[in-house]
Amino acid sequence: MAGTDAPARGRNIWIWFFGALGGILWGYDTGVISGALLYIPDDIPLSPLVQGMVVSGLLVGAMLGAGLSGRLADTLGRRLLIFAGGIVFIVGTLGSALAVNAELLVGFRFVMGIGVGIISVVVPMYLSELAPKEIRGRLTSLMQLLVTVGIFLAYVTDFAFADARAWRWMIGIGVIPAVVLAIGIYTQPESPRWLAGHKSGGEADAKKILVKLRGSEEAARSELAEIHESVRSEAENTEKVKLGALTRGRLRPIFVVGMLLVFFQNFVGINTIIYYAPTLLTNVGFGDKNAILANVGIGAVNMLMTIPGMFLIDKAGRRPLLRWGALGMCAAMILLTVTNLVGLTQGPVLLGLTLAGIIVYIASFSISWGPVQWVLLPELFPLRVRAGAVGICVTFNWLFNMIVALLFPSLLDIFGAGYNFLFFAIMTALAYLFATKLLPETKGRSLEEIERDLTGPAPATR
Question: Which residues cross the membrane (predicted)?
Fold first, then answer.
């Protein structure tokens, strides 16, 4: 057995490599704009509203890409759609880097967003379908970590090109991992689950792939039987879900909790830090390069604090993490509000307190709300509507993300940093109340128990 396991492990490493590359690329293209925004006005004039459009263009595209990916992944296959996502990334990245006006920049950022949306849906799906079942449950948190790695690398790239004010290179260098992903994914196997469940005559190919991945004929036969059972169960138990069906009857309280979860995930202010931290820091007196260097530190905290969050999800539970995370974010936002509203003159005290508040905020988010949402959402909904309901919530997640990203530069220009921090302090306090009063704990509990918590006992049948 050991002789067959070693080659199987080697093949798995390459699958994980290209999966990881997809997550990193998602994070890179999300985060790189934060530093580039400081230098784009050297070549392309940007009003606060247009700044918001440049950032949110990617998010509108991501909404579209994610919305189309589920059906396309079943029609085309996981591998072909990841390849298509890589091509879309390449086109969007090159177009954004070479844009000569705001319209082209926003348009190609939209194209990049379609790639982000595709990768955000299909790469986790692909990895979960090829991974051994013993580690499948860790993949959701792993993807969140990989996205933070991509954001950190984007911030480092921004700093590397800051002296040259080379925003085109900051964005354009993202084409390298996109090319590697697009080419490399075709050296990897197709998902056995897709072959067995969606491709006519694909069962023999699925078995061959499973033998290579698992290292033995017996393990491959056993997993193929599990795939057939899973496909049959999904076909019997999954309903097509429309938004109206989730807002009526016993599903409504569950859907309200799911929607509030994705609402607070965005309106506690995380995207103002991810996309606009250098802009915020220059607003309180940092120089451009020092703001980007500070942003590298923020990205490192974001990445490193996600790691304990991944392990605490199952040890501490979902709700305690969200509650403590909300308290930490609220304390940080209160510090930032007071610091920016008491009239401190620009100088070391204001700069130090602002940076400290942002770091406490990002650490509190990264260990809690960052990884927990993606684990918690599927646990809220009954199996029969889970896929459709989670898909709708994720679409609204992109929408809320886009609203914050679009409006924040204009609100910063009109009200200044202090009053924006005050708004987010209120939002984080409300997020704490939501996690305390409305959110059920899902750790170690059956879906039936969770559903009873939210909807009450099922009505008696006659």
Answer: 12-28, 48-68, 80-100, 106-127, 139-161, 167-186, 254-277, 292-312, 324-343, 349-377, 389-408, 414-435
| Cα 61–chain centre separation | 14
Q: Which helix (H) or strand (E) holds 224?
A: helix 217-237
Concatenating the DSSP letter of every residue in 91-111 gives HHHHHHHT--SHHHHHHHHHH
d(CA 122, CA 131): 14
The full DSSP string for 170-220 is: HHHTTHHHHHHHHHHGGGSPPPHHHHHHHSTT-HHHHHHHHHHHHSSHHHH
For the record, the structure tokens of 452 come out as 């009873």
- Sorted by where each begins, the domain ranges of the chain are 1-188, 244-454
Q: What is the 3-state secondary structure (H, E, C) of 341-389?
A: HCCCCCCHHHHHHHHHHHHHHHHHHHCCHHHHHHHHHHHHCCHHHHHHH
- Give the helix/strand (H/E) hosting 286: none
Give me the torsion for CA of 284, 287, 288, 290, rounded to 10°. -100
Q: Which two tokens stand for residue 368?
A: 């809690």
In this chain, the answer to whether the domains covering 1-188 and 244-454 adopt an identical fold is yes
- C-beta of residue 313 within 8 angstroms of C-beta of residue 141: yes
Per-residue pLDDT reduced to its tens digit, 360-375: 999 999 998 888 887 7
**Integer CA distances (angstroms), 25 to 93, 157, 376, in order:** 11, 13, 24
> Would you say how long the chain is, in residues?
462
* 241: region left, alpha or beta (phi > 0 left; psi from -120 to 50 alpha): beta
Please give the structure tokens belonging to residue 106: 């926003």
Give residue 37's region: left, alpha or beta (phi > 0; psi -120 to 50): alpha
Q: Classify domain 244-454 at the CATH class level.
A: mainly alpha
pTM beyond 0.70: yes
| Cβ(121)–Cβ(87) below 8 Å | no
- 85 in Cβ contact with 23 (< 8 Å): no
Q: Nearest-CA neighbor of 299 among 149, 142, 146?
A: 149
> Could you report the per-residue pLDDT of 87-126, keeping only the tens digit for each?
999 999 999 999 999 999 999 999 999 998 888 888 877 8
Termini Cα distance of the chain: 56
